[in-house]
Predict the 3D structure of the following.
Amino acid sequence: MSVFARTPAQEASFGGRRRLRGLAWLMVRQHRAALIACAAVTLLGALWIIHERATMLDTLHGAGWPAKSSEDLDGATVQRLDNSFNGFARYLGYLPLVFGVFIGAPLLSADHEHGTARLVATQSVSRLRWLAWKLGFALGLVAVTTGVLGALFGWWWRAVRHVVSSNWLDGTVFDNTLPVLMALGLFTTTLGIAIGALARRAVTAMAVTFFTSAAFLLVCDHFRTRLATPRRVAFPFDGAHPAVLNDAVQVDQWIGTASGKVYGWGTCVSDAAPETCRARLGIVNSVWDYFGYDQMATLQWTAAGLLLGGGALLVALVVWRTRRQAL
Amino acid sequence: MSGTATSGGDDSRWALEAHGLGKRYRRGWALREETFRIPAGRVCGLVGPNGAGKSTLLGIAARLVEPTRGQLRVFGRPVGDPSVRPRCAYLGQDKPLFKRFTVAETLRMGQELNPGWDQAAAERIVREGQLAPNAKIGTLSGGQRTRVAFALAFGKRPDLLLLDEPMSDLDPLARDEIGSLLMSEVAERGTTVLMSSHMLSELEHMCDFLLVVSDGRVRMAGDTDELVPMHTLVTGVTADGGLPEALGTHTVIDVRTAGRQFTALVRHEIPLDGTWQLAEPSLEEVLLGYLRHPEAPALLSPTAVPAHREEHAA
């Protein structure tokens, strides 16, 4: 066969249909593995949630819920359901870290390391347009995956929230439902991208991102109660909880006098005669600092706002850095 | 956008024009406010020792590096102008390509990212190297990878081709093959080429214009046909262990003595008299002389300097 002869087979293998054009094609081709992985995670996660939710509701309905209150259900059954819910939540909780390390960190650092950033920059597209596509593609991928899974997980939780994980301020629910899951994913991804743009070595960037994101997520855990001002309610000591505490999450607990003076929860507890001690101090009330269930959205959107603001700053840093730096 | 010297009016006679071009890195100046120009349609060799500023200059022209000072114009347009982008192709020393892409996908990338893409030309270059379209870039040899990189560069139909030591990592066979590929494509299109190289003999074959840089400064620039005849290799007998005084009226670039005999590379403003043995040096000998002596006065031919200065103080 002559070298110049064009057989139909060769023609076909060079040609092919062009469904995607320009940088869109390059993004999909270059990040094919990430795209397939995200699609698989989204699909399998979604199917799993739908299946588990249905199974869980079947079990609960079979046990007479919601006619029967969750306290009256068989403890072992509730424990099993709780474990299955929390087990999935734990996997979901790893997503932001995984996105930061495997999508964010190598996004620009791998292109710098292998010189492909130079390859693309010397074609006829501007560096900023390329960067915009890179960022848009990665963040879009993360947003879609976390968006679908977070929405479905929230749908699952709302159906069974009186049975499993009623503490919605806990990371299990708070971090894994929308909009926080998406904001966390986007933040850790931009953190990874920024670290990658500075480190310019994929493995270094991935390692640094892993530790930075893990530390960040741990620290975040401690700031959740500071996102809004808790409400305070006082009710008779030994009396029943008022209705406002239904579905509420307790932040702090005190004991207090009728005039509103509060004492630490442990006051008088170790006293020889607690009753006398309380009477002496004039303590008649239990005082709770709490977040009402109606505050959940505010808290979640505040958290998401802060995370997205931080993410936007990181994106600005990446753009500024990549724009100026020699490739 | 395609076609040489059709846009940009008068200035497109010059492929590259640098005015006070300088680049400073943290460790110091890589290029010190240099002024020179390269006519369009030439194959220009960029010569200099390691760290002389060759890659920085090519990087600025390829918009990979931003100059600290001065201006570089490409076919009369500032290098940052978007219309310059499709007219230049750049090939780095390491020839970066996506390793997981196939050959066909690499060409597809060229097609997707370049408006004036010439798929037929790119495919022809790849086919001449007997490369299978579905071969992964990562499995190719250095020479084959360079061929794909060249296909990508030529598929862009550039008016200016910037090559940073394109042959440095190739075996002699691949070097010869890629060299003839380059020359045939350039001859066919009239592409201007600026290529850095350490292979002086290679440059002598390919280049008709020269830019010699050392320590961030331009040492010599101009037509090879003009530059070489301005020099003479003088061989004679030393006087008191040094150069004869009569030679002092000329610019001596490089002297080597062996016993009582000296060999000097001389730039002559007036004809040399016949007391010595005279010979025309090869391009390689001239280049070596200038590279060996960075303190020798720079030699810039009128074509290579916008202000038509024959020389400027080093």
Notes: The radius of gyration of chain B is 21 Å.
